[in-house]
Give the backbone structure.
Amino acid sequence: MRILLIGPQGCGKGTQAKLLASKLGVPHISTGDLLRSATGELRKEIDSYIVAGNLYPDEKMLEVLKKRFGESDCEKGFILDGFPRNLKQAEMLDSITKVDRVIEISISDDEAVRRLSGRVACPSCGAGFNNATMPPKVRGICDKCGGELVQRADDTEEAIRKRLEIYHRETEPILEHYGAVRVNGENDIEEVFEEILKLIGIEP
Ligand SMILES: [Zn+2]
């Protein structure tokens, strides 16, 4: 089964993709991870775009995906996350594969802001916490090394709301394109997962 997960940042898409991939025995293909973990010639090429301050072009991303879909672990399907982000990309994806199910994990803008603006990390040891969902024992202090926790510059409410606006404008039209089904991402991780399994006809 080839499943596409769509949702705004903070909806828990990555977590659900991992759970689903392990339940179905298919790979979780995250375009973000694919780009980050690339090696060799592909790494050099991706870096050349990043260094120049450009996004990796859609056509190139499509080639990377096509190659990935052709690997043997994708024979039974895959869980795709991170692509497409707009209608043009969806049409490009349609030209190389047929997606069986498209699931939207929906959360309100306010909940996304609550979750994302709570993210803090320790610059000393790299540990991550979330004041909203996974708070450190002492606010502002790293549980592991006692370092001072800081927020990422792009996790301010203003920056988050700007990203959500782009999601509503660019990404949401994909949902109609595919006739996506919606689950409520504001429920607990386990509840969301069960709802997804029910939607795709798998016993929990
Ligand atoms: Zn630390």
